[in-house]
Structures are given as structure tokens and as C-alpha cells.
Amino acid sequence: MSLENIHVETAASPRNKEGFMEGIKDCVPTLLGYLSIGLAAGVVQKTAGLSIAEIALMSLILYAGSAQFIAAGMIAASSSPTAIIITILFVNLRHLLLSAALSPYFRHLSPLRNILVGSLLTDETFGVAINQTAKTKKINESWMHGLNITAYLNWFIANIAGALLAQWISDPEKFGLEFALPAMFIGILVLSIIGRSKIKRDIAVALVAVVLTVGCSFFLSSSMGIIVATIIASTLGMAVEKWK
Amino acid sequence: MEMRWEVVLIILGAAIVTFIPRVVPLMVLSRVELPEWGMRWLNYVPISVMAALIGQEILVHDGKLTSITDNVQLLAAIPTFFIAIKTRSLLITVLSGVIFFMILRWIVY
To answer: Average pLDDT for residues A171-198, to the nearest whole number?
Structure first.
């Protein structure tokens, strides 16, 4: 990373201590994206016949967007508990990769404190945290908790609100908010590429990942496609960097 | 506020199989020293996973490639990338992305 980059970033955000409150603030850009998905999840879960209490439990202890949609659908279709749990295991396996990628920044923490950091890990909080490393080269533990807990509460509120609104909204996507999530991923991707000094290689890796995901979608489930694409594209990036 | 036994069991099981992949790498990999290639590999995971998620959101629908010409999300993605590069702000990117999408959908349909 060049010094120029650091300068630009700090000029944009005043140099506070990167604590809990900063973590809450850095979560704000992602709130809209997950609010819309959470609302949709709430509606879908309610229409699938789940009670408000079950939806609350699901959003609080499962806390994973795609998994909740799938669970709702499978419960409505009276799938067996084993089938539902195994499907969700596969859907959420990509967290292995996110958790592994964050581990170098939390080396100094005890296993218990690492559990606390990891238990609320999502695509969005991962993305924001990785962007943070581009700015400061490290992740503060309380900053991470601020980020995680804000995203967690936002998700819970959105799920409950969606469940309550379910009788009036049948199709939450009508409001154009369905693009909030892809837009957020685009923002996170662009910011992480800009924050590193290997733009060409990163763009090549990103393009490979996109092509592989699309290719995998023809014969793998979407969640396995993401995992396969991530593993191959990252290996390619590593190999190219090594032989250069 | 009723909860069915079976549903609670499903949610508990799903929560456990989701929790483990979230925490185990953080616990284990922060204890052991990774080889240099491992660190390098992990370095590319954020880029790959975000790109894969974008590809899936925008290009794939129900396990099929979305038609390129009739894809409002793809159209909206182009100015959204541009805004992200120009502003370097996640909030502005998300807000303008949603606005682009709404305008484009209104024009296309």
C-alpha cells in the first residue's frame, strides 16, 4: 500500500480512535442493503407459516440471510430437519473462508475472544472489516464488535418488521431495494481493490471469480459455486503473485 | 407467541452448523503460524468472494444465466461501479446504486 493511499483515506475520515463507536458508524453504509433483505426475509418467513417468535429466534441465533430464506422455504415444504440442516451447512460453508481471511488480524486474541468476533461474521461485516485493514492495516477488537452488533440489531429489527408487514407487502422487491445488496457488494469490492496496490491482478482475479461463479451455476448449487469460484480464483491470484 | 418443537430443533441445528464455520478458522488459524503462500492465498479471498457474490446476484437467476440484454441489474451495475471508483464511499455507492436501478427499471419497463 502506498503512503498516498493512506493519506487520502485519513483525509476522508477523521482520525478517531478506531473503537466501538467508530465501528457502529462504519456499519451505516451497509444498513440499507441488509434492511431490505431482512424485510424480505421477514415477509418470506411469515408467509412460510413461521410465528413471530420463531422468526425472532431464527434471526437471532441463525443470523444468516440466504440460510433463513432456504430454511423458511424448506419448513413450508415440510422437508426433513436433517435435509434442512445439511443444506444450510453447505450454504454457510463460505464463512470458513471469510473467518480464515480475518484470522491474521486477531492473532493476539484468546480463543474465546476469537469466538465472539467470529460468531456475528457476515459477508457485509467481513467486507467492511477488510476495507478497514486497507486503511489501518489492523482491526481493532471493539471496532469489530461495534460493527457486528450494529449489523446484528439491524438484521433482527428488519426481520421482525418484515414479519409484521407481511400481511400488507406480498412482494417486497417492488420497491427497487433489491439492488441495495449487489450495490453494496460492488462498493466493497471496489474499495478493497483500490485499497491495495495490485489493481491489475485484483481485477483479473475478480473477473475469474465472476466467470467461474456463472460457469458453476450450471451444475452446482449457488452456495457451492461461490465456494469453488473463491477457492480457484484466490489460488490463481496467489500463483500469479508467486511466479512474478 | 407459539414455537413448535420441531421448528426450534431445526433452527438450533442450523444455527450450530452455521456457527462452527464462522468461528473455527478464527480460533485455529490465529494460533498457528501460516506459511507465506497461505497468507498470500487468504489475501485474495476477499476479492474473489465479493466478485463471486456480485456475479451471482447480477448474472445468475434460478441456476440460469440472466439474459444480458434484459438485465436491469447489470445495467445499473455499470454506473454503480463508476460511482464507487469516483467517490470511494460505500454509502454513496449503495444509495446511488438503488436510484440508478429504480430509474433504469422505470425506463426499461
So the answer is: 80
